Amino acid sequence: MIYLLFGYFATVSILAGVFTIALKNPVHCGLSLLALLLHVAGLFVMLNAEFLAAVQIIVYAGAILILYLFVLMLLNLKTEEQFLHKKYPFFLFAGVAILGELLILIFQTPYGGIKGKVTPEVLLNVGPSHAIGITMFSDYLLLFEIVGVFLLGAVIGAIVLAKPSPTPESAGDGPTEVIKS
Amino acid sequence: MIPLSAYVALSAILFITGLLGVLIRRNFIIVLMSVEIMLNAANINLVAFSHYLESMAGQMAALFVIAIAAGEAAVGLAIIIVVFRGKIATNVDQINLLKW
Questions:
Q1: Torsion angle of alpha carbons A99, A101, A102, A108, nearest 10°?
Q2: Which residue of B has its CA nearest to A23?
Q3: Is B87 on the interface with A (CB under 8 A)?
Q4: Which residue of A76, A166, B39, B49 has the lowest C-beta tally within 10 Å?
């Protein structure tokens, strides 16, 4: 049963990934990216990361993908005849060659390492979101703060970039300097 | 129990898919979507190792990767809007202002 589920999620996510880069219409690409994200969330559930699966669906599928679809709607892109790069057979060959070598190396590698304290039983007892919260606000507190500052910077950068550039007569009265596009 | 190498192989396949998308597509937005595929592949890897090594570190890293991806999408799409509005280019290979 678990093999069946893994096979389903893996196959659909690979297919959706291929469709994302292969389809012509950008909206279709966005929808197959949505399928990919949802199936990756399913894989997270299989790996005992339920909180991360919920975050994946809320943040990726609910926020980032909607942002992409909004930009697609605003820009009104026309589907072009030549939607691939001119030298794409070369890149395709190089990518498939790298993938083959990677897969050979991956299946030869003996995996191992020092095991931590969070066994599945512990995770089941305390609950996944409780375990993540305790870890995040104790060991990873500094990283958490840094990510907060980073997100603030990203918000300010996006607003500054997306602001319309000022007309010549009103350029002098702004309190701050605006990036000229 | 599914072997760890299955998850790592799936992640490698998805990563190469995203890399190919960045390399062969000409549309800006599809290129950014391919970057999201690559970030997702890295997330699968991190969570799989976190599960098999029974540690919380991989899940935390995946959570931070998702936060970074949100910021990257916001700033990248803002740059795309600027490029389109200034009629600088409509495809990735037409942006060559910084090319030497």
A1: 140
A2: B30
A3: no
A4: A76
